[in-house]
Amino acid sequence: MINKEIVKELVKNFIAGRDIFLVDTKVSTTNRITILVNKPSGITIDECVMISRHIESNLDREKEDYELNVSSPGLDMPFRVREQYEMSIGRPVEVIDIEGKKTRGILKNVQGEGFEIESQKVNGKKKESREISLNFDEVKSVKEIIKFK
Q1: CATH code reported for the domain at 82-144
Q2: What is the mean pLDDT of the chain?
């Protein structure tokens, strides 16, 4: 089986000094390698291809066969790394805390070990805004809310 840490290092070496960040790396027992990458302006297909070629040039298919997939995380995928939170500042997010409670709001900032959202609560005929601060370890998942017009 291909070692996940070796694959991770190959990706990190390639993206070092570039505006690209690693979101996740998975290697299945059948050597299906999945690499999720992104960057603040959005990763391009060409950049995914370059990362894929770099990995392929450093792994030996003759020694051990594998399937390789390099892509950006899906729009509906929960955040996994700090950079994803930073990319979504000012956008609506849905937070599910460790107790399972859902909260929706605008991601205001990311600092230290957590982040803040501004949530709107309807109280009668008026809306009340409240700032909620959460640590990363207090949430099960956070994902951007996608609105289709």
Answers
A1: 2.30.30.100
A2: 95
